[in-house]
Amino acid sequence: MPELPEVETIKETLKPFLCGKTIEQVTVNRPEVIAEPGAAEFVALLRGRRILALERRGKFLLVKLSGSYWLVIHLGMTGRLLWLESGAPQAAHTHLVLRLEGGEVHFVDPRRFGRLYFFSQPRLAEFIDLKDFGPEPLTPEFTPEKLGELLRDRRRPLKALLLDQRLIAGIGNIYADEILFAAGLHPLRPASSLKEKEINALYHSIRKVLAAGIAHGGTTVRDYVDGSGRAGSHQDHLCVYGRAGQGCPACGTLIERRRYAGRSTYFCPRCQV
DNA sequence: CTTGTGCCCTGACCGC
DNA sequence: TGCGGTCAGGGCACAA
């Protein structure tokens, strides 16, 4: 489910409830969702620790804990993190509950692609290093020049590159299609064929589309809700994603859907060249 | 290096 | 009502 704007929204909505609180109890209903270390160890290490800060790297949520430890969460396709009152009933597919002072965090994930990790500071650094993430697209380190460097000498289609977390971190299938539409670029355009003007258009589209996604509290096409259980509204602003057979908002040409890299890809055959 | 495929899972939806 | 097929915001292993 969640791409950068959704994880960012979840992080921001959970922040006021979680920061400064101590984890009093950890309930694991499904040990498989804990990737590292083992479930028993995970529970023992987490209990009694204080939450100091919430951060995000790509689609990963990073929870900074006392003693230089980290709880790291990836929500996969359908993962949710919900702040609920103490003793709230557990929805179906609630795999883990963190009891804090004054409430609980429920990790709910029907498809179970989401994973949780407990890391020491050096282990987190190693993990991030191993993932080899590209730059965060909304930070100052990400510039048009940087994007130009990333695209140079690569023949892969733009869609594949936008989905590749090692190039730019955080973009998923919805926002990749929306970004390419905003930039007027065909998803299958080889990266190295872009002119400087097109690189600039792509750069500004990446920033603009992701920022709009965050401003709208994420895109809810199916399961996504923020930390308070509220749906986003960016689905009302989508131009191409999920709109096969409907008119392009710019020119009226029918939006096309193609299968690429195992994912649906939506684009306007007239506006995107 | 690159691409495509299948898999991990559940649930919603569609056609018959 | 039921059944099978298809599809879904992700990511990984593996084959060609």
**Residue share in helix:** 25-40%
Structural class: alpha+beta
Order of helices and strands: HEEHEEEEEEEHHHHHEE
* Number of structural units classed as domains: 2
CATH uppermost class of the largest domain: Alpha Beta
Strand order of the largest sheet: 2-9-5-4-3
Taking pLDDT < 50 over at least 5 consecutive residues as the criterion, the unreliable ranges are none
- Sheet with most strands: 5 strands, mixed
Which CATH architecture of the largest domain? Alpha-Beta Barrel
What name does CATH use for the topology of the largest domain?
Answer: N-terminal domain of MutM-like DNA repair proteins
CA-CA gap between termini: 28 Å
Shape: globular
Radius of gyration from CA coordinates: 20 Å
DSSP helical segment count: 7
The CATH superfamily of the largest domain turns out to be MutM-like, N-terminal
Report the sheet-strand fraction. 15-25%
Question: What is the secondary structure topology, with strand pairs?
Answer:
Layout: H1 4-18, E1 25-28, E2 34-36, H2 39-46, E3 51-57, E4 60-65, E5 69-74, E6 80-84, E7 94-100, E8 103-108, E9 115-120, H3 121-131, H4 144-151, H5 158-163, H6 173-183, H7 196-215, E10 256-260, E11 263-267
Parallel strand pairs: 2-9
Antiparallel strand pairs: 1-7, 3-4, 4-5, 5-9, 6-8, 7-8, 10-11
Helix pairs in contact: 1-7, 6-7
The structure holds a DNA duplex (16 and 16 nucleotides).
